[in-house]
């Protein structure tokens, strides 16, 4: 038990390595902002393509979405980070992570938007068009707000997944929270920094996970 | 055409594909059995926990909820690093594949418990009452009346989650498990070519695309019924 506390819950080590982890946390926050922002926008765009009238737009969109859902995000990341330099494109770890997770998340967000938009009856669009709105306006002001509200729990739960996903950036040596914690572990020969990183993730994500459960229970009834 | 030739040679080099095909097949096999073990552990444990939760014992339920929340809120890679690098300090040395199966199995169990539980709470109260009224006990009603309906409701979200977590077996490459990604990365550094990475990505598409298509089929079938 004493060994356990010394190796995993060592407050002295945690305090000593906190500055390193704080920098990592800041990097994780930046990553989250970029990846979530890009994913939300890219996903919306991809969902429009997947619902386009022309099958020449629709089918490629589905192929892209399904392939992106079949390939693990870490594989996509390694492919972009270690593969693209062979094609003469040198890419920074941050850009590699941003591009890889942008692609991965767009596919997931696209599926959620599509489910939301298709849950809105066609009469809503027709009514909006009848009042003189263009189809773009009808989508933006009438359909989308209702659609997003319907799939808010799924959007939220996917966003939690995105935040967890950013920990994979440690594999390509981007100094985010997990990378910093693991570095601190190897410097101190002590696992407490990793436990501290886990606690930091928990502090941010536990409330969101609770919220997702709450929402979903309400829908089930 | 020179540029295109170079591109094809870099990412789709046939000679390298052929040379590493046996290694890659071994990697595919490792990925498949790891995923199978994770799915078996996760679904069994998740179902058991959801059933246990329906008995309504306060202390037990609190433990289950905390377990499910932790499993859903913590990034799996953090847990993998803690178990793989931390536990040896206590004299507990687990192999890479075992760490991967335990962590991903627990994470899947956390999600599966929530999904099965959502299914159980969606079964109408009258179903429970009818079951009890015919003389079945609580456990019998749970197993023969509530659970079959709950599981059917749970299947579409469950398949999505199983897919997402099976793909995470790629994290094994970080702790030296020789699954698809590890094989591809090793081959990439040996050959100095990006072709093995392409090969790895293709292998993942072949292994997991059927599951993705299954989620689409289930989604359609589910949409029809509602």
UniProtKB/TrEMBL annotation, chain A:
One of its GO terms (cellular component) is ATP-binding cassette (ABC) transporter complex. Belongs to the binding-protein-dependent transport system permease family. HisMQ subfamily. Pfam families: BPD_transp_1. This is Amino acid ABC transporter membrane protein 2 (PAAT family). PROSITE patterns: ABC_TM1. It is a multi-pass membrane protein. Part of the binding-protein-dependent transport system for glutamine; probably responsible for the translocation of the substrate across the membrane. It comes from Roseicyclus mahoneyensis. It is found in: Cell inner membrane; Cell membrane.
Automatic annotation (TrEMBL), chain B:
GO terms for cellular component: ATP-binding cassette (ABC) transporter complex. Keywords: Amino-acid transport, Cell membrane, Membrane, Transmembrane, Transmembrane helix, Transport. Coiled coil: none annotated. GO terms for molecular function: transmembrane transporter activity. Residues 28-215 form the ABC transmembrane type-1 domain. It is found in: Cell inner membrane; Cell membrane. The chain crosses the membrane at residues 28-52, 59-86, 98-120, 170-191, 197-218. NCBIfam families: HEQRo_perm_3TM (TIGR01726). Belongs to the binding-protein-dependent transport system permease family. HisMQ subfamily. PANTHER family: L-CYSTINE TRANSPORT SYSTEM PERMEASE PROTEIN TCYL (PTHR30614:SF0), MEMBRANE COMPONENT OF AMINO ACID ABC TRANSPORTER (PTHR30614). This is Amino acid ABC transporter membrane protein 1 (PAAT family).
């Amino acid at each position: 038990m004493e060994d356990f506390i010394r190796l995993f819950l060592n407050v002295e080590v945690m305090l000593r390595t906190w500055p390193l982890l704080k920098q990592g946390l800041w990097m994780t926050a930046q990553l989250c902002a970029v990846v979530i922002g890009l994913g939300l926008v890219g996903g919306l765009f991809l969902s429009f393509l997947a619902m386009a009238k022309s099958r020449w737009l629709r089918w490629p969109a589905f192929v892209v979405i399904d392939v992106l859902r079949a390939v693990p995000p870490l594989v996509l990341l390694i492919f972009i980070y270690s593969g693209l330099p062979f094609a003469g494109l040198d890419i920074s770890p941050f850009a590699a992570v941003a591009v890889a997770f942008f692609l991965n998340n767009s596919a997931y967000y696209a599926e959620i938007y599509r489910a939301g938009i298709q849950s809105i009856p066609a009469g809503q669009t027709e009514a909006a068009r009848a009042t003189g709105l263009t189809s773009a306006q009808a989508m933006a002001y009438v359909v989308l707000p209702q659609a997003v509200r319907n799939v808010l729990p799924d959007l939220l739960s996917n966003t939690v997944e995105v935040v967890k996903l950013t920990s994979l950036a440690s594999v390509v040596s981007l100094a985010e929270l997990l990378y910093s914690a693991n570095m601190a572990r190897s410097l101190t020969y002590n696992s407490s920094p990793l436990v501290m990183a886990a606690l930091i993730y928990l502090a941010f994500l536990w409330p969101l996970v609770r919220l997702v459960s709450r929402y979903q229970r309400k829908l089930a009834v | 055409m020179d540029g295109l030739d170079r591109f094809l040679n870099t990412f789709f080099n046939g000679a390298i594909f052929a040379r590493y095909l046996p290694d890659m097949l071994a990697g595919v096999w490792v990925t498949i059995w790891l995923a199978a073990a994770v799915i078996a552990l996760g679904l069994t444990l998740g179902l058991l926990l959801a059933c246990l939760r329906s008995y309504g014992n306060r202390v037990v339920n609190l433990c289950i909820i905390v377990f499910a929340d932790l499993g859903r809120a913590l990034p799996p890679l953090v847990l993998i690093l803690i178990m793989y690098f931390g536990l040896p300090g206590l004299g507990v040395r687990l192999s890479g594949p075992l760490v991967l199966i335990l962590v991903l199995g627990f994470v899947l169990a956390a999600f599966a418990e929530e999904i099965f539980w959502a299914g159980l709470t969606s079964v109408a109260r009258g179903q429970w009452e009818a079951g009890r009224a015919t003389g079945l006990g609580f456990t019998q009603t749970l197993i023969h009346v509530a659970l079959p309906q709950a599981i059917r409701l749970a299947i579409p979200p469950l398949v999505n989650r199983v897919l997402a977590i099976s793909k995470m077996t790629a994290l094994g490459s970080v702790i030296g498990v020789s699954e698809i990604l590890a094989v591809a990365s090793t081959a990439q550094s040996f050959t100095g070519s990006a072709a093995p990475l392409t090969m790895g990505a293709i292998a993942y598409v072949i292994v997991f695309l059927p599951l993705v298509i299954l989620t689409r089929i289930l989604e359609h079938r589910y949409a029809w019924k509602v």
